[in-house]
Amino acid sequence: MNLLAIGIALAASGTASAQDFFFLQMSDPQFGMYTGNTSFAQESANLEFAIATANRLHPAFVIISGDLVNKPGDKAQIDEYLRITRNLDTGIPLYSVAGNHDVGNIPTPESLAAYRKTFGKDYYTFRKGSMEGIVLNSSIIQHPDKVMDEEVRQREWLEEELKKAVADHIQWIIMFQHIPWFLHDPNEPDQYFNIPHEARLQYLKILKESGVRYDFAGHLHQNSEGTDGTLEMVTTAPVGRPLGSATSGIRIISVGKSDLCHHYYGLGNLPNQIDLKAFEVCAPNIP
Hints:
This protein is of the alpha/beta class. Helices cover 30% and strands 19% of the residues. It has one domain: Purple Acid Phosphatase, chain A, domain 2 (4-Layer Sandwich), CATH 3.60.21.
């Protein structure tokens, strides 16, 4: 059962709250990954379809959680990402997240400056109704070796932004980043697809103390979920090339008065519309 089916079933149960809304998370368009940077026709087709879907569904916003391109600094890949995302309805805000393929596996002052010149800020906040989104540059947390000052600056900034959100009684403080803190368990071993354990525990403590309940990431090219107390870590499969048994797709996240629901849809299995009446009930997730 998807959101549309639940919405039909609940149609007689009342109207949605004015604060109910939904947004789309797309992860890892990663132009060039399918062919090892020789072309990006498939990535273009996937993202064009995803953007057309966003224009049809008209979410509150779209967030693309990192690895916008496959080869850091590649002009053709960057230009194609920008060309396609400019087709998003101007009434739908687009938020881009920095990934390791955008700023390098080990970021440098130069790679960060290049990203910021092209895409804008790599960590920032935005608000929508009862929600505050906080976007992090997870690459400078995973590998701060050459940008230690940036890691400290971002962490101090995060703590201040969380204090402001708590003081403003924001109902939903939602984190967005590229590399997840963990895939399944906060104490899992370090690997390429998560944040090193020492930094992970430090940041998770900061988030949980501020009441953060949801964190959405990408990077894995498959879906994965895990929890640390009341914090849910959601890793979303790519709109670009998937790995393993995953499919290319989009995650739809609905934000209601009392609950937040999220569902992943393959590009061939997207709903025809989103019914706000369904937001108070979470449907089973679709793999």
